[in-house]
Amino acid sequence: MRVRARFAKLGKLRWTSHRDVARMWERAVRRVGLPLAYTEGFSPRPRISFGLALPTGHESVAEYLDLELTQLDDPGGLVARLDGALPDGIDVAAATRLEAGTGSLQEEVTSCSWEIEVTGMDRQAAAALVEAAMGADTLEVTRERKGRPSTDDIRPALRSLCVSDTASWLPGPPSGGLASTGRTSCHTGAVLLAELATQPRGVRPSELVRALDPALELGRARRTHQWIERDGARREPLPPGPPDAPHAYERAS
Amino acid sequence: MTCLWPRIEPLLARVQRPARYIGCEEGARVAPHGAARVGWLLVYPDAYEIGLPNQGLQILYEILNERPDALAERSYAPWVDMEAQMRARGVPLFSVDTHRPAAEFDVIAFNLSAELVYTNVLNCLDLAGVAVRAGERGPADPLVGAGGHCTFNPEPLADFVDFFVLGDGEEVVGEITECARDWKAGGRTPGSRERVLRDLAGIAGVYVPSMYQVAYDGCQVAAVTPLYPDVPERVEKRTIADLAAWPYPSHQLVPLTEVVHDRLNVEIFRGCTRGCRFCQAGMITRPVRERPAAQVRRMVADGLERTGYDEVSLTSLSSADYSGIEDTVAGIVGAGIVGEAMCTGQSPAGRSAGGRPGRAPGNGVAVSLPSLRVDAFTVGIAGQIGQVRRTGLTFAPEAGTWRMRQVINKLIREEDLYGAVESAFSEGWQRIKLYFLVGLPTETDEDTLGIAELARRCAAVGRAHTDRVTVTASVGGFVPKPQTPFQWFGQDTVTELERKVRLLRDATRRERGVNLRWHDPAATLAEGMASRGDRRMGAVIEDVWRRGGTFQEWSESFDLALWEEAMASHGLSVTDYAHRHRERDEVLPWAHLSAGLHEDFLWGDWQDALALAPVEDCRWTPCYDCGACTGYGIEHVVASVVPPAGGSQGTGQDLSRGGSLPVGVRLASRAGVS
Q: Does B22 touch chain A if contact means CB atoms closer than 8 Å?
């Protein structure tokens, strides 16, 4: 049976890698005592599948993973149990059993929404950039691929782009436990809201910023949503959870 | 107190592996800072992924944070990219726990596990904004200390470190804290630094180099004399009598990013009396002190449950020698689901093929035993534990011929090795790694080539079982270490070591299934100069550091030219420091420091080595008075007074059983293969 979990990656923990987070989950699942299914073969691996990798250094309030379990006797309290076994900064928001036949995150997720900070830039300059980018036919970015420079047009992947008046990491009403993981910002700059497609490949916030202007410097970036678009409707892989849950949005804002 | 995090974080996007600098490990707990607590910064002067797992540092971290008058945080050498960022923006060395500047602590204490980290010690002090030379530090500066195996000859760092700790740190850190507490409470007034150092010199096991004067006679030391009557002429190491009294670390740190030895580690005993003459660790950590089996089981069960690890390493200098190792391993492996059956203590004979039906892989616990002996018994245990992934087995015969192994007192017979290899290949392993040393005393080319011959025969043994045999012979150059019987021996030159490596390359080139790997002989030379150097080496280390020679443990950073040029510019001879044979009456630079071993014993053992005379393991045979027990009024703590079955190395055991496996073990391991 498969269980999908939604979690946030915030604060100092954002400097850990995708692989690091995978190992944290493996240990947490063992601590909680969930009976994970393993791959067959010479070197069995736990059947945990992560969706799109979050680049090291970026935060997220919309990460997902699917766990394949051999049984689940007590689904109650699963969110709290997993959250307690994970380090502060990896905060579990929701977990639910998947119906049979549900596609994998890799297959289903079509786009991601991001908050992207561009350091040292004011709101007006940012608005001009956004207008130019949305009006452009192509947005080229060059990256290293297999040791060679390769140029892509990321304009088709840019679903939407606008300037935000605020950012979810900026100081809001007082909330507990934030100082311990350093959830404070030391950057200033314009904040962009972008929706970037994940097919045929996931465009990274750093690529977008470079495509806007190679001289710009990416500050903080936070994934706010992953979207599954099908038949014209858009939904998240898992809703954030009941409002009374110890939830990432509230804690992060 | 200052938190540097807002200044550190902007640097992290510009460096490799930024998780090295964030802390946040599970298990990290720091007592609050305050005037009533002595703040210790424990520094491992190498990269985070090497230093984080260090058990010695973690033990002291917990012990200090449990004290009402102390707190401890940790720091590691920033990698070169991070160092460049920090220096460019004036960010000093910081703790990873609360990201405080290093200089705000009362004591900065380094772990010295290897000589080639010495330049990193200087670099860390400099990054901290603390004067690198001890004599230039003022009242505002923290005390700079160091512990770890290298402190049995700390003279090369004598100019940079205020105090060294010899031996086990568990007890002595408390006594040092009390001294530093008074110094701190007194407001660190001018002149008080001298006073606290003098007080520290009075603590058993603490060596304050500035309280001693060294006189030289050419390339030798003439005398080391205390400057004051209350300073001991000879500093004796500290030894905790009973490991059971120190069940640490109780909250092993679980790093959030990849490190070496990323698993639960439980120390099952400290000290080793196998008597291998090249082995400094075995000489300086005597006697053997086993942890009680019940405590081991509890630490394993609690540790696995708390950390979520699925692998535990039972650490020691020779883990198969632990009394009842089979029962201990069986208890862990047989437990199946983590934390369930840890306390049942089933005997291995009781666990037959049917004992673990339907056990899911991955719910089991893998056990690893570092530093295994070379015999079939050992492979039997390995068969029991390596059920899922049979990647490779490692043995350390250390030398290629029986004659050479008699010299070093590593009494593995060839039949032991072939028995071990036979068992390993028949149990399904396909890769064997063999560790050897070249440049040992009295070594001939026949001895060197014996390494290739052993590897060739091991591959042949393996081919009877499988076509895909790989035997890797890993060859390191021997560095004579202080406080060992080989401390008088002049080490091989780089040219000679290179010649021996070439001999082996030629001999193994066409051998099917045999791979040769070797350690850079140039690094062996630098390690040798630092390991037996006197205080004059300090200027060399400072030069190497000032010219950018950090991370000398790393082959991509190591540069022998820096060392040779620094030696020359200070008028010191590489030959004198590394290659010269020492005489009996020479005052060795570390003669005023003691690991408890009588000099008569060490010299006698050196002469026995040259005469191919063996020395037995004294935990099972009568005492030969090396001094480590008698001098300190302590003794071995072992649960079993007889050697483990099948063991051969110096135990006086019947060697005829070398190739057979205990039946119960064989059954159990077969069950795991299916």
A: yes
Burial of A193 (0-12, 13-18, 19+ CB in 10 A): middle
Nearest Cα residue to B290 out of B264, B324, B265:
B324
Check if the beta carbon of residue A103 is closer than 8 Å to that of residue A12: no
Q: What is the Cα–Cα distance from B12 to B130, expressed in whole angstroms? A: 24
Kindly write down the DSSP assignment for every residue of B434-501, as one continuous string. Answer: EEEEES-TT--HHHHHHHHHHHHHHHHHHHTT-S--EEEEEEEE----TTSGGGGPPPPPHHHHHHHH
For residues B503 and B447, the answer to whether their CB atoms sit within 8 Å is no
Residue B382 DSSP symbol: H
Residue B641 in contact with partner chain A when CB distance is under 8 A: no
Q: Does B26 touch chain A (CB under 8 A)?
A: yes
Tell if the CB–CB gap between B256 and A13 is shorter than 8 Å: yes
Instruction: Answer yes or no: do A13 and B307 touch at CB < 8 A.
Output: no
8 Å CB contact of A181 and B361 = no
> How does pLDDT run across B310-346, given as a tens digit for each residue?
889 999 998 888 998 888 888 887 764 333 222 222 2
Q: Where are the alpha helices (DSSP H) in B118-257?
A: 118-128, 172-185, 192-201
CB-CB neighbors (< 8 A) of B23 in chain A: 12
CB B356 within 8 A of CB B335: no
Contact B361 A44 (CB under 8 A): yes
Query: What is residue A148's three-state secondary structure?
Result: strand
Residues B375-391, mean pLDDT to the nearest whole number: 65
What's at B194, amino acid-wise?
Answer: E
Confidence check on the interface: ipTM exceeds 0.95, yes or no: no
Strand A189-197 to A111-119 pairing: antiparallel
What span, in angstroms and rounded, lies between the C-alpha atoms of B46 and B134? 21
Across residues B649-667, what is the average pLDDT?
Answer: 34
CB within 8 Å: B22 and A15? yes
Tell me, yes or no, if B12 comes closer than 8 A to chain A by beta carbon: yes
The number of C-beta contacts closer than 8 angstroms across A and B is 78
Average pLDDT of the segment spanning B382-388:
62
Three-state DSSP class for residue B575 = helix
How far apart are the C-alpha atoms of B187 and B183, rounded to whole Å? 7
Q: What is the C-alpha to C-alpha distance for residues A29 and A22, in angstroms, rounded to an integer?
A: 11
Among all chains, which residue has been given the structure tokens 């192509």?
A138
B contact test, residue of A9, A15, A29, A70 with most B CBs within 10 A: A15
Bridge partners of residue A113, in order along the sequence: A195, A225
- pLDDT single digits (tens) B224-273: 999 999 999 999 999 999 999 999 999 999 999 999 999 999 999 999 99
What confidence tens digit (pLDDT) does each residue in B389-431 have?
A: 556 788 899 999 999 999 999 988 888 888 888 888 888 888 8
What end-to-end distance do the CA atoms of chain A give, in Å?
34
Which residue is it, tokens 């883990």? B319
CB atoms within 10 A of CB B202: 14
